[in-house]
Structure formats: C-alpha cells, structure tokens
Amino acid sequence: MISSLLRLMDVLDDLRLSVLSVLSVLSPALSFLSSAIITVEKQRTEMGYFEQRICLQQNKMARTVLETVQRKQSILCVSADFTTKDKLLKLVDAVGPHVCMIKTHVDIISDFDHDLVTQLATLSAKHDFVIFEDRKFADIGNTVSLQYSSGVHRIADWSHITNAHALPGDGIVNGLKKVGLDKGRGLLLLAEMSSAGSLAVGSYTQASVDMARRHKDFVIGFIAQRKLGDSDDDFLILTPGVGLDVKGDGMGQQYRTPQEVVDAGTDVTIVGRGITGSEATADFDKAASEALRYKQAGWEAFASRHKL
Question: What was the pLDDT predicted at 36?
Fold first, then answer.
C-alpha cells in the first residue's frame, strides 16, 4: 500500500514538473498574443469611421460602396427609372457627379440593348459610382441563378449590386451567390419597404437579418427603413422613400427626409422622382441641380451623425 502511494506521488511530481515546463514555454507566447490583441484593438479604435467599417466587411463590393461614399462624400443613390435608353443615359450622366450609386430597372427600358450597359459601365467609371440593378429576385435558387446570369439582360455581367426577397429561403441567396460571388458582386435583401401596408415587418424582417448573417460573404446589407443587425454585423442599409419636399405620392409611397433616415441608421439614401422628375418633361440640368441638393443634405446629416 505504502509502495503504491509512493509510486503515485512520483507520478504526480513528474506531472507537476511537466506542467511547469509547458507553462514556461507557453507563457511568453500567451503574453505575446495578449499584447498583439491589445495592439490590434488600439489600432482599430484609432482608425477613422470609414476605415473601421471597411475592415469589418467580408464582401469586396461592400468595401467598394463604403470607399465610394467616403471618396465622393455622397450617400445619394438616384433611382433612374426612365424607360428609354437615350434619356436614361443622359440622366445618369447629369446626376453622376453627385451620387455614390445609380439604381436601375432594366426591365422597364423599351429599347434595351447591350450597348446600353456598356455605356452605363463607362459612365460608372467616369463619375465613380456603383451600379445597382433593382431586380428584386423572388424565386427558387435554380431559377434566379438563370435570371441573374442569362436571358436578355445578363445582370450579373454589369451590375455591381442586385437585390432579392428573403421569402423563398436560403436557396435564393445560394442561387445568386453561385453566379455573383466570383464576379465580385454583392446582394441586398429586402428586409423592409417604404410603401404603406408593406408586409415586410416583424418576424419577416428578423428572418431576413438571420439569413444575411448566414451569407455574409455575399449579402452586404438590406433595403430597409432603419439600422438592422448588431454592431458586429455592420450591414449596409439602403433606404428608399426619401424626399425633401413631399411626404407621399398618392400611390402608397411614403417619404422621409435625408435627416430622418440617417438618424434611423441608413448608409445610402435612394431618391427617384424628387430628382429625376417626369421622363416626359425631363430636364437634365434641373436633375443635376436637385441631385446636388440631395447630396448636400444627405452628407450633412451623415457627417453630423458620425462626427466626420
């Protein structure tokens, strides 16, 4: 019995010495790791607003949007809902200097051709803005992958960003990601809408956020009326229904000012008719002037909120 206890004590003593030996090796490494973490956190807190946010983005296009906003000091996206190629391109050229993004609906253009998207890409480079095709995909994964990559419009070939409803489930994101991820594209989910009576509320909105978290390599944010997700998520928020002069359009659209939507957490304001006016009486000089007015109002609110 005594002999067994002595052997056990020898084993425990050997174990103690082994643990001390391991700790002596690990201690410098743990100290270095702790110091490195503190250094990284210190560097992060010393970064500017945009640098901090850009570092959090997994998707290249999300970083591009933030870099464009910073570079142009504009959070304005103009919804260019004209139905003819010539007027659409003239509008984009007029407002391009004042925007970070142009939103299109190519399926409403009566004389669409591939020269249109070639010229749109040229204007994107000339004026330094991102192209957002507001396609609102809403089908199963296989179907949306074909709609995104093929057909007449071949959206994935030229549009930096597109969007989709979360209703069909994760398959819709997987289908679009299969096409767009390798092309460096980004996806927005429609978590909320600006129209009266929208059903995109409550648990549906939360389910959209949860879906985005599962696909942060491709989903860059939301069409929404307020900040969604946690601070660690840092999704981009694009908000439609922004107007400086009116509160509604008689067809269910509801408007808030740039200040109101920025206070609610938006990153990009989407403005259509308040800038473009009617296509039938298009005035491109006036559109440029209005774009500048909305750019200034949006940036003033954004810079004030984030202490830029």
Answer: 44
Which DSSP helix (H) or strand (E) runs through 98? none
Q: Are 124 and 131 in contact (CB under 8 A)?
A: yes
Same domain as 133, residue 62: yes
Shared domain for 234 and 282, answered yes or no, is yes
Nearest-angstrom CA–CA distance, 269 and 261: 8
Which of 60, 85, 90, 136 is catalytic? The answer is 136
Q: Do 222 and 253 have their domain in common? A: yes
Q: Are residues 122 and 188 in the same domain?
A: yes
Tell me what pLDDT residue 230 has. Answer: 87
Domain that holds residue 5: 1-46
Confirm whether 134 is a catalytic residue.
yes
159 is in an annotated binding site: no
- 206 annotated to a ligand binding site: no
Question: What would the two tokens of residue 278 be?
Answer: 């009617």
Mark whether 136 is an active-site residue. Answer: yes
253 is annotated as contributing to ligand binding:
yes
What is the domain count for the chain? 2
* Catalytic residue check, 307: no
Q: Please report which helix (H) or strand (E) contains residue 133, including its range.
A: strand 130-137
State pLDDT tens for residues 205-241: 999 999 999 999 999 999 999 999 988 899 999 999 9
Do 239 and 224 form a contact (C-beta atoms < 8 A)?
yes
Q: Name residue 187's beta-bridge partners.
A: 162, 219
- 82 with 16, same domain: the answer is no
CATH number at residue 185: 3.20.20.70
On whether both 142 and 290 belong to a single domain, the answer is yes
Query: Which of 83, 81, 119 is closest to 102 using CA atoms?
Result: 81
